[in-house]
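Many introductory courses stop at the sequence. We go one step further.
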Amino acid sequence: MNSTQSYYTDAQPVERTSQPLLTAILAVAASLLILEQAIYKYKKGHLPGPSWSIPIIGRFADSLNPSLENYMSGWKLGDLSAVSVFNIFIVQAAKNEYSRKIFSSASYAEPCLVASAKKVLDPNNWVFLNGKVHSDYRKGLNVLFTRRALSSYLPIQESIYRKYFDKWTRDATPKSYMMSMRDLNMETSLKVFCGEYIPQHAQDDISAKYWLITVALELVNFPFAWPGTKVYKAIKARKVAVKWFEHASAQSKERMSNDAEPECLLDHWTKAMHEAKNNAHTDGSSKVLRAREFSDNEMAMVVLSFLFASQDAMTSGVVYIFQLLADHPEVLGRVREEQYRVRGGDVDSPTTLDMIDQMTYTRACIKESLRIKPPVIMVPYLTKKPFPINADYTVPKGTMLIPSIYPSLHDPAVYGDPESFRPERWLPDANGNPSDAEKAAANYLVFGHGPHHCLGKEYAVLHMTALIGSASVLMDWEHIVTPQSHNVEVIATIFPKDGFVAKFNKRESIA
C-alpha cells in the first residue's frame, strides 16, 4: 500500500466517528432550544406577550434602544404581561393594584433595579436590604430630612442655583441643557450631602465619573463586569466615589465630636448619633441611632445611593419642569406672581422653608410635572419565591417582576385629560377641600410605595420648588422646539431626546 492509500485508509475512521458527534451536538442544542421554549411557555401561562421567545436572546434587540412607545405597547397588552430577555423571564404589571401589591410585598419580592445593579452599587449596599433590618436602617436615616436639616440645606442650594443661573444667562446661545442641569444637581447634592469635606478636584472627578453608573443601570445591559464594559466602568467609578464619601464621613465625625454646628447631611447624621446616645427619646430614629453607630462605609453607601437618585432622577424632573413651564407661559406667569408675593417683591431674599410652604401653585406645578413625566417609569423587582399576584396567576420564583409607574399616573379615570399639563388639578377647592387628584394618592407612585418608597421625597420636592421659584424671578427662558423635543429617551430615567434645547436671559424687571 502506497502512502496516498495509507492516508485515506487512516482517515476513514475519523470521518465515521465525527459524524455521530456532530449529530449528537446538534441534537443536544435542539433539545435545549425546545426546553427553553417549553419553560418560557410554562412560566408565561395565560399571560399576554410573545407566544414564543427568540432563542437565547429573547427580546434583547428591542431593549438595545428602549423607548417609551415600546413600553406603552407592552402595558396595553394587559394588566400583567410577559416577555423573556437573555433567558430572564420578565412580568410587567401595568395595573395600579398590581404595582402597589408588588411594592408592598417584601416577603415575595425584593428590589433588584436591574440585573447589573448589585455589581454596580455593591451587593452590601443598604438599598438591597429587606425586612426589619431594612426598616430599622431607614429609621436611622429619617433625621436627614427633618425641617431643621432641610432648612440648613437651602442656603447651600441657593448659592449653587445662582452660580448656574449666571452661567446660563451669560451665554444666550441655544443649546442642550440636560447635562448642565445634571451638573447643577450633582454639585448641589455633593455640597448638601458632604459639605466642604470633599475637595473641589475630587467633586469634579466624582461628577464626571458618576454618569458611568447611570448608563450601566439601563434596564437591559451586558451583565458581566469585563474590562471595557459599562458595568466594569461603573464599578470603578463607584469605588472612587465611595473612597471620598468614607473620607467625608470620617471628617464629619471628627468635627461633630467637638460640638460643631451641622453644615451638611453627614453632619446632621453624625450629630443625631451623638445626641441619641445622650438622651432617652423613644422615637424610632433615636432607638436605632442609640443601638448602633453607622460605619464610614455604611454612611458612604447611603450617600452613594442618594447621589444616584439626586443626579439622575432629579435631573429628569428638573429638565422637564423647565421645558413644561417654557411651553406653557401662562403657567409660568402664575408661578412668577406667586413668587413675587411670597418674597414681598424682593427677588434677592433668601428662600426659607416658610416661603416654600406658601408656594402652593409652584408646588402644584412640580407635582404635575412629575406626574406627566415621572423620572422613573418602572422599578424592577426579583421574586424570592412563587408570588400569587392574583387568583389566576402565580409569578414564578426568580422572575424579574416590574411594577410600572407611568400607567398609574396617566390613568384617564383618575386624571382627566391625563396628557395635559394642568397644575390646577392639585389645588384645593374654594372651601379648602383636597382636589380629586389629591385624593387619588394611590395612583401617585412617583416616589414608589411600600417599605422601599423614596426616603428623600421631601428633599426632592424642596429642591425642585426652590430651584424653579428662584429661576422664575431671576431668568426668562425659551424652549427651542426640535423634532426630538417631545420624544422620550429612556436610560435609567427619562429625558427629552434632544436634551432640552433652550436659551436663558437675565430677567431685569418684575411684572
